[in-house]
Amino acid sequence: MKSISTIAIFGLVFLTTTAMAGEDEFELCQSKAENLVIRAANCDIAIRLGELSKEQMIVALFNRGQANLASEKPGIALEDFDAVLKLAPQDTEALFTRGVARRQLKQYDAAIADFDRLLALNYQPAAKIYLHRSMAYHLLGNKEKALADLRQAKKLDPADPVITDRLWKSEQLYKQQGL
Fold first, then answer.
1. What is the pTM of this model?
2. What is the pLDDT of residues 19-43, one digit of tens each?
3. Among 152, 154, 147, which residue's Cα sits nearest to residue 175?
């Protein structure tokens, strides 16, 4: 009888510790200050423990995806953003970052489709979408659409130095190429 009580107490302590560890990992998964590798690992542990609510799962998947994207692992990140969009189809941040991951994976048409959907959903700032979509068009070799998107981005956010620089460099490059 004594051994059954000991086993029961051990089991209760183990389950409590595991649940608390899952909560700790989820909290660390949300931390912006963590090293990206550590952040992704904490999110992974929280996800694998399987004790997250739907909202927490969305946050953990998104944060792990962002950490992997920033760590130059767009293929792994894409899986997480796809999973987020299955749980929350209108999540515009996941849709945006999935578009970026797809562009990095050279899935340009799919990236453009994500950016088009964001524009249809009235995502803000729209200049950001035009900038990223212009990169996909450029990589597809569609110079006219790339320039049109950069000009639209500049019109929407004339003070953005990245947009200004990218537009100027693209115009110079395309002019040299005879466009």
1. 0.83
2. 444 677 888 888 776 688 888 888 9
3. 147
